[in-house]
Amino acid sequence: MEDSKIDQATEFTLQYLDLLEKLLKIEYTDSGAPIFIPDRIDNKDIQRLRSYIGELHEGRLKDRAIGDMQSYSTHKIHRIQTTAVGYAESFDMQVKLGLLLGQRLILWDTVVLSILSVSDDEVDLNTLGKVANGLIQLRPLANAGALILLPQPKTWLERAAKYYSLMPSEATVSSTFKGYVNAVALLQEGIVLHPYLMQNQMDYRKTIESLPKSVSPYYSKEKAGYHHSLLRILKSANLEFLDNIDAVRFYKEIHDMGKGVMRQFQRELAQKLSFPQSAMSDEEKEQYLDEIVEELEGAIPSVMRNIKSQHVDSSHAGVKAIQATFGLIADAGTAGAFSAILSGLGAIGSVRTFLKKIETKSVDPILFQVFSQLKTASEFQLSQEIQDESNVPGTQIDQNSSRNSDL
């Protein structure tokens, strides 16, 4: 969890999501999945949505939100905020990748405005509802300070506006190039953020290499290779649960393990994917990534066996406390990181006794522990989705089941 105080960028994001929810008359399933019904929306609703978003984009809160985004990482407080570059086949996967690379993800408000840019009668309500549902499902991430949504840079950054004006026709330029222009303009203005590529976009490698040295630490060929490798892991058929689990639960399961565990997981994953790509052929890279996938896949049953091998009575108060908080986590490696949380659960003496029983056991790498927990969480989510589909009529535009509760 980030700082409990809500900054202005987060406040802007929450107000934007509130507008979508209220003006598009979003309802929810029992488990919190948003439902959009197109037949309930008329042209007046579209006009009000367009007008209120415009007011939010032009108000003082927007200026303060951008200021908070610009000062998120300073020479005293080192935090990483990320932003995606390029077309994403899966918005959910785009969000998960961004969350793995930093502490906060920036989304630019381009899709909703594009949908609303046509006449009222031409607005595609189904697409609008799907996009709105996808954004509203991410509210818990915004509440946690892990995601913000802001106006696109060309509307408030002179350098970005200038770059856009040099394009022959914005309509003919790909979303990837627009994302590239936004990222470069922001970095050249000294705004610290970390762009990441959603595809292995070789066409942009030479362009990236020609960037100024001040930009290269944040946007380089080497980083593009790492992003591709990480995306390759997330999309692997052998680790299908990483694709199946939604972004909110993905973040929650990792983040609930504690800030130290989250950072350690990011470091171990980066270390695992740090290999000399420049000296390898494409085939060698893919073979190496296949081996990593196999290692991760094979480690999951081993971690679960290690849990069972602890031989701690499941009726023990310490076990029950962990299960009550984290569902199915009772892991020797994660228990140490959970101690601060467990101390507030009651039965303190029992919890400490339990921790002493397992602290001398072998500890699996955090990397393996997290993947094991995500697999368990994915299976639990699937059971909830099946229950949702059996209870909800066919009016739900987006059946993904990110929860609407706070993290």
How is this fold's topology laid out?
Blueprint: H1 8-23, E1 27-28, E2 34-35, H2 43-58, H3 60-70, E3 81-85, H4 91-101, E4 104-109, H5 111-116, H6 125-136, H7 139-143, E5 147-151, H8 158-165, H9 175-188, E6 194-197, H10 205-209, H11 221-234, H12 240-244, H13 247-255, H14 259-272, H15 282-308, H16 317-326, H17 332-342, H18 348-358, H19 366-391
Helix pairs in contact: 1-2, 1-3, 8-9, 13-19, 15-19, 16-18, 17-18
What's this entry about, in short?
The chain is mainly alpha-helical. The chain has 19 helices and six strands.
Give the tally of structural domains.
Answer: 2
User: Could you give the count of β-strands?
Assistant: 6
- SS element count, helices: 19
Largest sheet: 4 strands, parallel
Strand content: 5-15%
| Order of strands in the sheet with most strands | 5-4-3-6
Describe the structure.
Strand 1 (27-28) and strand 2 form a beta hairpin. Helix 1 (8-23) packs antiparallel against helix 2. The protein has 407 residues and is mostly helical. A four-stranded parallel β-sheet has the order 5-4-3-6. It folds into two domains: 8-235, no CATH class; 237-395, no CATH class. It contains 19 helices and six strands. The model is unreliable at 311-362 and 393-406 (pLDDT under 50). Helices cover 57% and strands 6% of the residues.
Question: Which key features would you list for this structure?
Answer:
407 residues; mainly alpha; four-stranded parallel sheet; two-stranded antiparallel ribbon; 19 helices; 6 strands; globular
